[in-house]
Design brief:
The complex is a heterodimer of chains A (313) and B (229). Chain A is mainly alpha-helical. Chain A contains twelve helices and no strands. Helix content of chain A is 76%, strand content 0%. In chain B, strand 6 and strand 7 form a beta hairpin. The chains are: A mainly alpha (313), B alpha+beta (229).
């Protein structure tokens, strides 16, 4: 059985990329909201880190949807998913969440960048100012909705796979939580990496704030991974076969232990623990830690998708 | 700041209630929806693995009748064996085709409703036009019998010849083609049908029922071959 080609394989790597992009979008916008509300306030839009998160969130979700459409066997019929809905289908509900999420996302971005938008418009279109003022009235509600929708989107990527009873490893109640938490941590990493690449101060209060949240996130992710696999092994039968097949010997076993556990989780955790909150951050430190996290989450998506489809119930 | 937080929470509550209400409603709708009094029947098929000789007449007939392109198939006979010593050798044959589940995992996951349960016949069907090819139904099928038709690019599978033979008032192509009468087809709701009679008098089994699929392809276990644990 080759790691990328086997009989029961139905969804290939483009789906893993999509799951990754949806997660990073949800995570990045959560951090933009957190940074604005707890650290930066009104002038949040001036921070490179908030700007990076606000670029990543829409671009990632567009790229993900693009991949999804191209991956259909009938790409030109994609609009049928938007027209016909099936409430029992996780994918259908997810598409609805994705659509509303994008509306909330752009409304919130408009509120956040109100000043630069108005400056750019330079009183040319009075309707823009009017629309922005109306949006600003509902800013708190939009923010609340956006956070809920982002969390739903992050969890949805897990529910999409966990709805498949065919594959005992995917049909697992921990999977949506695991995807949500790893998605949020990839959003944090994306925000940090984007921020320092956009000339943000690697020792700024944004970095310290995000790094503080990263430690509990990584610990939670480790606990969820442990629960995920121990749960499968204790269930016995095909679930046990699937779990041992995934994290045992072979290509995907290496991906899990070396790629996900060591590079993706243990190294960022060690960096964060050794570099206390008071220490001075450098560009290379922030960039490397964030890259390790992103790499780990991308591997995790591929690992779960491929090994999940290897064992049939 | 305090007012803002209150508004945030208000927005959150409205959203949560909205989502819960909408999903509750849809579940209620799906559980109470009833067919419109049309003649209700529930087609089922029995494969007698003792009578089956693995001649593939059924799969050939299926391909011709339903215009199934090369490279994919709606129906396969899988063989295991040979068991035993020559001259007393035997094979075991199992049918691989749509199980026409009542639990219908493929229908539940289909985002557009292209995979649907036909209330008149109880047959799980595909609306080629509505299908966008997301492969979700193919991943959801525990029997792994769905495939993408290379010509239509839509999901495809056995529909008990609903669009071909049943329309002509005949039995499915595989049932008609079987030289040993290993296949029995009929309506489960008709107490006098041959299927009901066979099911009531012969021990039978179904595949993967533990997944809640409630398949309507019944099998009469081969008495030859090994017993595996």
């Amino acid at each position: 059985m080759s790691p990328f080609h086997f009989d029961s394989l139905i969804w290939h790597w483009p789906i893993a990329i999509y799951l990754f992009l949806a997660g990073i979008s949800a995570g990045a916008i959560c951090f933009a909201v957190l940074l604005k509300h707890f650290k930066l306030g009104k002038h949040a839009y001036k921070s490179s880190f908030v700007q990076a998160a606000c670029l990543i969130a829409p671009l990632a979700v567009f790229a993900g949807l693009g991949i999804l459409v191209v991956d259909l066997t009938k790409p030109f019929d994609f609009w049928k998913i938007l027209v016909f809905y099936n409430p029992t289908s996780v994918m259908s509900v997810g598409v609805a969440v994705l659509m509303v999420y994008q509306v909330a996302l752009f409304s919130w971005l408009a509120c956040l960048f109100k000043e630069p938008i108005l400056k750019w418009c330079d009183n040319r279109w009075p309707i823009v100012e009017k629309a922005l003022n109306i949006l600003m009235k509902f800013e708190a509600t939009i923010t609340g909705l956006l956070v809920i929708l982002a969390l739903s989107l992050g969890a949805y990527t897990g529910f999409l796979l966990s709805a498949l009873t065919t594959f005992p490893m995917l049909n697992n109640p921990v999977l949506p939580m695991l995807f949500l938490i790893s998605g949020i941590s990839s959003g944090a990493a994306g925000t940090l990496l984007g921020g320092v690449l956009m000339k943000g101060n690697p020792d700024g209060k944004e970095v310290h704030f995000i790094h503080n949240i990263e430690i509990p996130l990584i610990l939670l992710e480790l606990a969820l991974l442990f629960t995920f696999f121990l749960g499968l092994i204790l269930s016995g039968g095909q679930s046990q076969v699937a779990a041992l097949n995934a994290i045992g010997e072979g290509f995907w076993g290496w991906v899990f232990w070396a790629g996900i556990i060591v590079v993706g989780l243990a190294m960022p955790l060690a960096f964060n623990l050794f570099m206390t909150t008071s220490a001075k951050r450098k560009f290379s430190y922030v960039a490397i830690t964030a890259s390790c996290s992103l790499f780990g989450v991308l591997l995790l998506r591929n690992f779960i998708l491929y090994t999940g489809q290897m064992t049939v119930a | 700041m305090k007012k803002e937080r209150r508004l945030f929470l208000k927005g959150a509550c409205v959203a949560a209630v909205g989502v819960a209400g909408a999903s509750g409603l849809s579940i209620a709708n799906s559980s109470t929806s009833k067919d419109d009094g049309t003649p209700n029947c529930k087609y089922a098929l029995i494969h007698d693995e003792n009578k089956c000789i693995g001649c593939d007449a059924c799969s050939v007939a299926c391909r011709e009748t339903n215009n199934v392109p090369e490279g994919v198939s709606r129906l396969d006979i899988e063989r295991e064996g040979p068991f035993g010593e020559y001259p007393n050798q035997f094979y075991r044959f199992t049918r691989k085709s749509c199980q026409q589940c009542e639990g219908k995992p493929c229908v539940n996951v289909c985002p557009t409703g292209a995979a649907y349960h036909d209330p008149k016949t109880g047959i799980v069907s595909v609306d080629e036009w509505k299908c966008v090819g997301c492969l979700y139904c193919i991943a959801a099928c525990p029997y792994q019998i769905r495939f993408i038709n290379p010509v239509t690019k839509a999901a495809d599978k056995c529909d008990f010849c609903k669009e071909t033979r049943l329309k002509e008032g005949r039995q499915p192509a595989c049932v008609e083609a079987c030289p040993t009468k290993a296949l029995t087809f009929g309506d489960l709701k008709d107490p006098h049908s041959q299927v009901v009679e066979v099911l009531k008098t012969t021990p039978n089994y179904r595949s993967k029922t533990e997944l809640g699929t409630r398949p309507k392809v019944f099998r009469i276990a081969s008495q030859e071959g090994e017993i595996k644990l």
